[in-house]
Design goal:
- The chain has five helices and eleven strands, in the order H-H-E-E-E-E-E-E-E-E-E-E-E-H-H-H.
- The protein is α+β, with helices and mostly antiparallel strands.
- Strand 1 and strand 2 form a beta hairpin.
- Helix 1 crosses helix 2 and helix 1 packs parallel to helix 4.
- The protein starts with a helix and ends with a helix.
- Belongs to the TO family.
- This is Takeout.
- Keywords: Biological rhythms, Signal.
């Protein structure tokens, strides 16, 4: 997603072999931010599965690492672990604002993620005094209207006689909107405890979001940084910014 913007910033300054699906933006264009946004929109279909000819990975689905949750005192404790989480929807981002500083290789974005849908596997353990409840199964859910601020900073690295642009890890910060979460087979499919627990989870979804947001921010940042650096490593700084 955001690395695609880097691609659109960088590749317009390459002398040749610019793919036909890349809209060229001129460095001295007074409306370069608008041009970059337009370029991203044209390239959006390519971002979903990746761009093999540029060695750029796809953004859909986004894989998250393990998410662990532990809440409550010893006598009323809830622990949960979620694995194999796949997130769909990042490529549907909306660029609300872009401020670029090509002289200092800095790009600041304000994005809106209208809807993210996820699925994975969970394991849950609830201990209330002498009563212990356990469950494992599938977890699905959606997040709506996530606001996302992204900061990209680059620096030059020397390789032989040439300089290359390398981006530092992207900083991604999410602000949560609405959420919906559903767990299957809670407590071995108990017809009372299962639905009741799902209601409690959704009524207190901020607890889960506090755990998943940092993981989502980190995963997005790592993916976007990798995508950007795969592109900029192929061209010298002079080629990208003559």
């Amino acid at each position: 997603m955001l690395s695609t913007t880097v691609l659109l910033i960088a590749l317009p300054f390459v002398a040749a072999d610019i793919p036909s699906y890349i809209k060229v933006c001129q460095r001295n264009d007074p409306n370069v931010d608008k041009c970059i946004i337009s370029s991203v929109e044209e390239l959006r279909p390519k971002m979903i599965k990746g761009i093999p000819e540029l060695d750029v990975p796809g953004i859909e689905p986004l894989s998250l690492g393990q998410i662990a949750l532990a809440r409550g005192p010893q006598g009323a404790k809830l622990t949960a672990v979620v694995n194999d989480v796949k997130v769909n929807g990042p490529s549907n981002f909306i660029i609300e604002e872009l401020k670029s500083d090509l002289d200092n290789n800095r790009f600041d974005f304000k994005l809106l993620l209208p809807k993210l849908e996820f699925n994975g596997k969970y394991k849950m353990d609830i201990q209330v005094l002498l009563l212990r409840l356990q469950g494992r199964g599938n977890i699905t859910g959606s997040f709506k209207d996530y606001a996302c601020n992204v900061t990209m900073r680059g620096h030059k690295e020397k390789r032989g006689d040439e300089e290359y642009l390398t981006f530092d890890p992207f900083k991604v910060k999410l602000r949560v909107g609405e959420s919906s979460i559903y767990l299957t087979n809670l407590f071995d499919g108990d017809p009372v405890l299962g639905p009741a627990t799902n209601r409690v989870i959704n009524e207190n979804s901020q607890v889960f979001l506090q755990e998943i947001s940092p993981v989502l921010e980190r995963s997005l940042g790592e993916l976007f940084t990798e995508m950007a650096n795969k592109i900029t490593s192929k061209f010298t700084y002079k080629e990208l910014f003559p």
